[in-house]
Amino acid sequence: MIDDNDCSNELIHPGTVLLNDFLRPNSITQKELSYATDININKISQIINKKRIITAEYAEKFAKFFKTTSDFWIDLQTNYDLELARHKLKDIIPDDEIYKVIAHQPHDKYSILHYE
Q1: How is 43-72 classified by DSSP, letter by letter?
Q2: In the chain, fewer beta carbons within 10 Å around the N or the C end?
Q3: Do 116 and 105 form a contact (C-beta atoms < 8 A)?
Q4: What is the architecture of the domain spanning 14-115?
Q5: How many Cβ atoms are within 10 Å of 5's Cβ, its own excluded?
Q6: Confidence band (pLDDT; 50, 70, 90) for 10?
Q7: Conformation bin of residue 101: beta by default, left when phi > 0, alpha when psi is -120 to 50
Q8: What span, in angstroms and rounded, lies between the C-alpha atoms of 52 and 45?
Q9: Which pTM value belongs to this model?
């Protein structure tokens, strides 16, 4: 379950975009979207209620239905996830410390270096 109730107001879940920018303006019900995209109505509801993420499969289906791109939906989800992570990590890594992660080879372990 995704909980962003304690996050700043700038976090916008992709489900909110789905509802406010696509369903409501076009008078499309969740049931109609479910039928047209072959996504279970409970999953549509969970996306809208911030309880489920938009997966690559859902992104493809939404893109075809709304005539957008799957990247649009994936980017919404990725940006939301990144902002949520930043919010959660802001108290863990102090602003006055800088960490640099360096990958030596694609599958090597990451090294964390501390710079002062």
Answers
A1: HHHHHHTTSS---HHHHHHHHHHHT--HHH
A2: C
A3: no
A4: Orthogonal Bundle (1.10)
A5: 7
A6: confident
A7: beta
A8: 9
A9: 0.73
